[in-house]
Amino acid sequence: MVFEHALKSKKMLLFVFVTLLILGVFLSLYSSVIFQEGNPWPQVKGIVQLNFSNTDMVKLSGSDNKYITKSDNPEIIKSFMKEKGYDFTEQMGAGHLFKSPSGESAVAVHRYYSHYYSLWNITEHKENSIVEGLRDCLPKSDMASHEKCNELLKQITDYNSCVGAGFSIMKSNPPQCATPDGRTFVRAN
């Protein structure tokens, strides 16, 4: 009786050891694939949802703009964006460009996650009146355009409004945004 219990314990211990060894070898061989996007759990959850639901596209948890599909079929993304009010305009490499009737634009960038799944990053660009106004008046040199630009530039009062107006972010620590009239705004942490 004691001998049988000891034998069962050794078999169980051997089974656990072999299982852990196989899991360790698997992780060491395929870690670059498994962890290519960092934490693999959002992608695993998305793959499970794709396989056990009647959807072609799943939004990944923890991300505002990342989606997963079973294939790289661009028709899936085109129909998804059509439902959001965007029309397909063109494809440039891995980027699919979209435009809405109101002038807003979006880009869906494709990446393979594996042989069977694709990741899509969708970035929407919402236009605002400051951006449109500055785009109109900055290239002009007449006095009315100059005054209009000065009024629009006065509305930019912090880092976020500077970035939102489309001005460049300087690579500094902390990041800074500069306006054409010489003001610089530092990102608040």
Low-pLDDT parts are none
Task: Report the helical percentage.
Answer: 40-55%
CATH class annotation of the largest domain: Alpha Beta
CATH topology of the largest domain: TATA-Binding Protein
Radius of gyration: 26 Å
CATH superfamily of the largest domain: Kinase associated domain 1, KA1
Order of helices and strands: HHEEHEEEEHHHEEE
What would the principal axes of the Cα set say about the shape?
elongated
Please, how many helices? 6
Could you give a short account of the major beta sheet? Answer: 6 strands, antiparallel
Task: Give a structural overview.
There is one protein chain. With 189 residues, this protein is an alpha+beta fold. The protein has three domains: 1-34; 41-125, Kinase associated domain 1, KA1 (TATA-Binding Protein, 2-Layer Sandwich); 129-186, no CATH class. Helix content is 43%, strand content 22%. The chain is built from six helices and nine strands. The strands form two sheets. The chain has a six-stranded antiparallel β-sheet, sandwiched between helices. The protein has a three-stranded antiparallel β-sheet with strand order 7-8-9. Helix 4 (129-137) packs antiparallel against helix 5. The mean pLDDT is 84.
